[in-house]
Fold this sequence. Notes:
By secondary structure, the protein is an alpha/beta fold. It has 3 domains: 3-66, PUA domain (Archaeosine Trna-guanine Transglycosylase, Chain: A, domain 4), CATH 2.30.130; 75-175, 2-Layer Sandwich (Transcription Regulator spoIIAA), CATH 3.30.750.80; 200-389, 3-Layer(aba) Sandwich (Rossmann fold). The protein contains 9 helices and 20 strands. It has helices spanning 75-92, 127-130, 133-144, 204-208, 228-235, 248-260, 274-284, 305-321, 340-354; strands spanning 3-6, 20-22, 26-30, 38-42, 48-54, 60-66, 97-102, 111-116, 119-124, 148-153, 166-169, 177-182, 185-190, 218-222, 240-245, 267-271, 288-293, 323-333, 358-364, 383-389. It has a 7-stranded mixed β-sheet, sandwiched between helices. A 6-stranded mixed β-sheet has the order 2-6-5-4-1-3. Helix 7 (274-284) runs parallel beside helix 8 (305-321) and helix 8 (305-321) packs across helix 9 (340-354). The radius of gyration is 22 Å and the shape is globular.
Amino acid sequence: MTQVYLKKKVSRRIENGHPWVFANEVEKIDGPVAGGDIIDLVTHDGKFIGRGYANPKSQILIRLLTRKKNEQITDDFFLQKINAAWKYRQKLGYTENCRLVFGEADFLPALIIDKFNDYFVLQTLSLGMDLWKSAIVNALETIFQPKGIYERNDVPVRELEGLTQVKGFLSAPFDTQVLIHENGLKFMVDVENGQKTGYFLDQQDNRRAIRHIVKDADVLGAFTYTGTFEIHAAHYGAKSVLGLDISASAVEQANRNAALNGFGDKCVFQAVNAFDVLKQWSKEGRQYDVVMLDPPAFTKSRENIMKAVTGYKEINLRGMKLVRPGGFLVTTSCTNLIQPELFLEIIEIAAKDAKRILRQVVYQTQASDHPIIWGQENTHYLKFLIVQVL
């Protein structure tokens, strides 16, 4: 097997567990390497570190799959890894809907699998993982006997790996509008055309966290997508709920979800630019008991971090101004490029500019079916904060 040697003074990040090896961290390659090949990674003096797949055309030359010298990468390897991921979710109580495989956090880098009851949506985001797609599908069929499997590989990041964007059935065709249950509510998931894999499972625990603060409250939700936070607010006793999203199709789905749960009258959704509306309404002096902000990532690259910081600060400033004194702001950030300390600093700066005092109520990350591996920033991406605005 081809061996790839790390540079002598390379960061201990890799030896300490990180699965990515960048091309500039490699001293030499002993043997041929084609895209997707399984190779052995060794130290500068030949000591085994791990085994994984390579892609000479990617900035990430190697993604490690195992640290065990005697473990071979075969179809059975993927069966065992996916089965282990499922047992972890079951242990934590995530059985109907969950992120079954969360890439590096489940030691299957660049693989995402979401489970929506008996239906599965997967993403193979690297060349090396894409070559094992049939083994992954076979593993899902062996463990779950699913009603359907769909791939959502219509994501630009695949092009960095020399892959095309594609989506479609990996099983017999099925109705891609899938009904799920969450926290006593029902939601339709569009696995074919919805954002990412069709639904944001990472917020399922956080949506429960609003249950006390929204009771008898006038609630405003911005960047609502398909209305999950807003419908939870109605379910938990909100007096009125208004949700805003720029996508007309998302608003249409939000209205369907509200009606599905009997909240078609209480929940109102509008297709508008939330940035503009928040600014205008704060100038007009509108006030709500609870304002919920669940914006997009703002940036996917380190080069645009300051632009993202400005965006997060601006919407949180506007959001705070819309909260009645003593009310609550619910705010999130979903990019790992904005780490928790920076996120909280942004909120603090916005509060000072808004001349409001904040009292922290809840701080959480993503749901535990999206596990965080310490030392791997990309696995710790979601920040969820509730503060009282005084």
